[in-house]
Amino acid sequence: MIRNYADIKVFTANAHPELAKEIAKGLDLSLGKSEVVRFSDGEISVKIDEKVRGTDVFIIQPTSSPANEHLMELLIMIDAMKRASAGRITAVIPYYGYARQDRKTRARDPISSKLVADLLQTAGADRVLTMDLHCSQIQGFFNIPVDHLVGMPLLMKYYMNEFKGRTDEVVAVSPDLGSVSRVRAFATKLDIPIAIIDKRRPKANVSEIMNIIGEVKGKEVILIDDMIDTAGTICNAANALKERGATRVHACCTHGVLSGPAIERIQESAIEELVVLNTIAIPEDKKIDKIKEITVANIFADAIRRIHEDLSVSKLFD
């Protein structure tokens, strides 16, 4: 239980109100009274309908698609809280948009994730709480505290129950070289071997399987990634694993971006089940039988409680 209910309030904009309600329920709180609307020309207007002076305010808003709309809602709500004299403002961003633009890969490229960090701080955020940044070094783009939660323990727990007593039949697979450390940690916890897919990417959102390092023939495999966007990489990997003798293909990720042709690709692929955390709201027309959601509400509620009470957030992962 939180020590002083009067000192903490949780608000949401329009990106994922269902998750915000779950988080507030986990804190034994009601969502703060606010409204985010549009003027006829598309400009965003925010109304805060209750007192926040001196309050520890948490604003829950993943900056998922439409990223610019949801980011602007968050920035304006932060500004409204600041001007209403909130004691502390924490931006709770389960999915941090623009995280993939974290460095210059070509001449004259922007570093958009740094720009977003600057905007959040300029708007008035005192702290950021997020989950599974695409690149953990993004924390260094901020001059305010950033609490970085990890979703892997939730996925580990799910698969430990799913494969209880038969982990000798399972292999954890990294869909690319960049995910190896994440997959190794997952495999160590489940005490299973790993395999790695070596691929090249001719252009953005297009991948080509080159080679599979490790033994997958006759095994059930779990493909593990931090996010799935257009699903080209994960579906190509799943199909290649099936062609090389995998008996069943499972896949999981923290962030189910699922843009463009993702749903169609997943539906037609060798993936039997895709497990995603609900850091991003999945529209009803994208909810298919193959996709299973696991809620992150409890871990965010625990983190918010710890931040409010000045306790260690890292203890959540001990």
Describe this structure as you would to a colleague.
The protein is built from eight helices and 14 strands. The longest helix is centred in the N-terminal third of the chain and has 17 residues, at 67-83. The mean pLDDT is 93. Strand 9 and strand 10 (206-213) form a beta hairpin. Helix 4 (152-162) crosses helix 5. The chain is α/β, with parallel strands linked by helices. The protein starts with 7 loop residues before the first strand and ends in a 10-residue tail after the last helix. The chain folds into two domains: 5-150 and 297-317, Rossmann fold (3-Layer(aba) Sandwich); 152-294, Rossmann fold, CATH 3.40.50.2020.
Keywords:
single chain, 318 residues, alpha/beta, Rossmann fold, seven-stranded mixed sheet, 29% helix
Tell me the overall shape.
globular
On the 0-100 scale, what is the average pLDDT? 93
Strand content: 25-35%
What's the structural domain tally?
A: 2
Main sheet attributes: strand count, strand direction, barrel closure: 7 strands, mixed
Total helical elements: 8
For this structure, the CATH topology of the largest domain is: Rossmann fold
CATH first level of the largest domain: Alpha Beta
Structural class: alpha/beta
CATH architecture of the largest domain: 3-Layer(aba) Sandwich
Strand order within the widest beta sheet: 10-9-8-11-12-13-14
Low-confidence stretches: none
Order of helices and strands: EHEEEHEHEEHEHEEEHEHEEH
